[in-house]
Amino acid sequence: MAGAHTLAIAALLSWLATELLGLLMVRSWIAAGGIRAAQRKPADPDAMSLPILAGHAGLNLAGLACWAIFVGAGVKPLAWAALGLMAPAIGLGISTVTIWTPYPGRRADPRPGDVPPEPRADSGEATSPGVIPRELLDQALADERLSQQLVDELLSRNLTPEPSVRDSGLSLRPLVPAAHGVLAIATFMLGVLAAIAAI
Q1: Which of 22, 103, 167, 174 is least surrounded, with the fewest CB atoms within 10 Å of its CB?
Q2: For the chain, what is the mean pLDDT?
Q3: Global pTM?
Q4: 79 plus 139 within the same structural domain
């Protein structure tokens, strides 16, 4: 029985570490304007879904509470309830990773006057973001003032270094969600072993 209690405490510590990494990711998501992007979700398909994020966090916190009571009071059914809450939470976490890749950092803010190009109605083909439609380009090249503005814009975008890019080129930011996921799987495995050993 001592081995079961050791496994349960190891699962609790792993769960707490997983939650701390989750809080770190949510804090950086909020700082990067994630809530505002989620509120305009239909207009921004890359934005995180608040219900999915809330469901993921809520299920994990409820499971953590059940597990803490199991560890403290030894109520065995709560171990299985905690694991039952954790399983769908992991599923929601995996869905957030697919939506939230790459890990949210500070994206370049749109410049004043930037308007995303619209698809060309006559050809049926969609234009990629940042690509100038042919008609607009022809119009700009025909007008000397617009041509100069276009050249200045291209030069400023391509020659000005972005302040958020580090010189080293190495970013450890993707390790945070990876560590969060690995710890979640390890926590689940430790929890299953502890729940089985407690029977």
Answers
A1: 167
A2: 79
A3: 0.63
A4: no
